Amino acid sequence: MTDSARFTWTVLLPVKVLARAKSRLAVLAGDRRHELALALASDTVSAAVACPEVARVIVVTSDPVAGPQLAALGAHIIPEPLPQVLALSTDSLDGSQPALNAALLQGAAVAARRWPGTGLAALTADLPALRPAELAKALRAAGGTEIRTGTEIRTGAAFVPDAAGLGTTLYAVPPGGEFRPMFGGASRARHAAAGAAELTLDGIAGLRQDVDTPDDLRAAVALGVGRRTAGVAAELLADV
Fold first, then answer.
1. 55 with 11: CB under 8 angstroms?
2. Pairing of strands 158-161, 197-198
3. Beta strands 119-123 and 168-173: pairing type?
4. Residues 157-167: tens digit of each pLDDT
5. What is the spatial distance between Cα 212 and Cα 29, in angstroms, rounded to a whole number?
6. 7-33 confidence digits (pLDDT tens)
7. Pick from 85, 111, 79: which is nearest to 100 by CA?
8. What are the CA-CA distances from residue 215 to residues 24, 81, 181, 206, 231 (Å)?
């Protein structure tokens, strides 16, 4: 956290069981899909841990491989009950992922108990081109978001849309705001409809480039990805 910050940020990342993660990348990764998913999450966590605005990173996962590896990178691991993990692969009719958002709420509850007064930022775990400075820029902007209700002014939620303009890669709420993540499908519209402010910032291409498809992976590689994703992607894309 920077010296000028008024509060700390806790970043929350939900990580699916690797065997069920990134199904749309199966056409490219085949039986290495779990390896690619872990590489994406590892590079995302590494960038978040290195961000000067972030005091701590919490990963919500029950994967027996991802948990220890992400913990070794500096993340706090919160195990997820098995029924919730299985439900992460099932979307609702509107494309949202209730169990994924429930995992984020679970992490937020732990953060509130252990580090009261922290800002909460939910981050997708598939941002291999993320730079610490990009995340810092977005969190500083989110920290200054305010909304007016009658005569009261309080801190409001903010979010960053993905590169496709449909989803969300970052949802942040400073202390005093209501943490209501709505990830999955067209989450950009849902977050905006719920009153969260969309952050339109320059210079955060890595923060916006999530990876769900082979084309997304190519776009992330073009931006410059972390070393773990770079190694796996170089082999997978060389065979295409």
1. no
2. parallel
3. antiparallel
4. 999 999 999 99
5. 12
6. 899 999 999 889 888 888 988 989 999
7. 85
8. 11, 33, 26, 15, 17
